[in-house]
Amino acid sequence: MKILMVCLGNICRSPLAEGILREKVKDLNVETDSAGTSAYHVDEAPDTRSIQIGRKHNINISDLRGRQFVVEDFDHFDLIYVMDQNNYHKVILMARNEEDKSKVRYILNEIEPKSNAEVPDPYYGGDNGFENVYKMLDAATDKIVEKIKNGQL
Ligand code: 4NP
After folding, report:
1. Is 12 a catalytic residue?
2. Which site from 15, 47, 58, 67 is most exposed, i.e. has the minimal number of CB atoms within 10 Å?
3. pLDDT of 84-105, one tens digit each?
């Protein structure tokens, strides 16, 4: 199973999602990665506020680096989890066929099915936004791991 997390900058939400999932699946045969729909922060480390919130919860994401989503990601990954509607539409626009499209899911639909709810972009907000994002991603990745273990993904 190969899972890609996607947001806009690949420095706040998706590296945190990747890091939390990476920790939870370390004894399972799951590959994790993350990417941004923009090229704003390519090769950059995650935002210090995401690193801090991860550290607070014993998740180290300081090794991760930003990269942009590419069409080949549809070939490599089984599932592509997006954080919000903007990411969803950008990724869907790059899909070449229905199979590509079927891999793309809103991450919060794992905990609120069919809601298409968004993980809010914390970039311009205060530190509280990062804790809020952490809680959402922790809950969603719990569900993802549960589904992997039950063979539902
Ligand atoms: P992310 O947050 O998509 O969660 O990584 C953002 C990071 C940077 C920008 C926007 C969102 N930016 O406009 O530079």
Report:
1. no
2. 58
3. 999 999 999 999 999 999 999 9
What would the two tokens of residue 130 be? 């990062």
Domain 2-149 grouped into CATH 3.30.499.10: no
Tokens standing for residue 26 = 């370390």
Q: Determine whether the shortest distance from the Cβ of 17 to ligand 1 is under 6 A.
A: no
Q: How far apart are alpha carbons 121 and 123 in whole angstroms?
A: 6
Could you give the 3-state DSSP secondary structure of residue 80?
Answer: strand
Confidence of residue 128 (pLDDT cuts 50, 70, 90): confident
Cα 124 to averaged position of ligand 1 atoms, centre (Å): 8
